[in-house]
Amino acid sequence: MNTSKTKQLFLIDGLGALISAFLLGVILTRFEAVFGIPLQTLYVLSIFPCIFAVYDFGCYVLVSKKDKMFLKAIAFANLLYCFISIALLFQHYDRLTYVGWIYFLLEIVIIIILARIELKIASLRS
């Protein structure tokens, strides 16, 4: 497997995590009424991408061997985040607006696509 591809994925995932953390923790919190998700839930959700960004950038800088294992780990963490997000969306379905549903469904779709790519690259033989 090409190590530069995995490093690129860690970088892409990390940048995406930073964007998600910023959107969830700063932008969506300022417009809670537009999205319909309570502040506390947004802050809880924003913790995950913060942790993922640290992990991704750490892997980008430090990992050169056994990168498949680290790539699989972030892919599964991303999928777990999607399941948690979906559970929280349904927990707050009565407050969630159409704009909120659209935002979160788009985020989930993007993350699932990224996780599938990460798992595909991680499963390639060296």
Question: What topology emerges from the helices and strands here?
Answer:
Layout: H1 3-30, H2 32-35, H3 39-62, H4 67-91, H5 98-123
Defining key terms:
126 residues; 85% helix
Summarize the structure.
With 126 residues, the chain is mostly helical.
Explained architecture:
The protein has helices at 3-30, 32-35, 39-62, 67-91, 98-123. With 126 residues, it is an all-alpha fold. It is elongated and about 45 Å long. It is 85% helix and 0% strand.
- Mean pLDDT across all amino acids: 93
Number of helices: 5
Helix content: over 70%
Structural class: mainly alpha
Shape: elongated
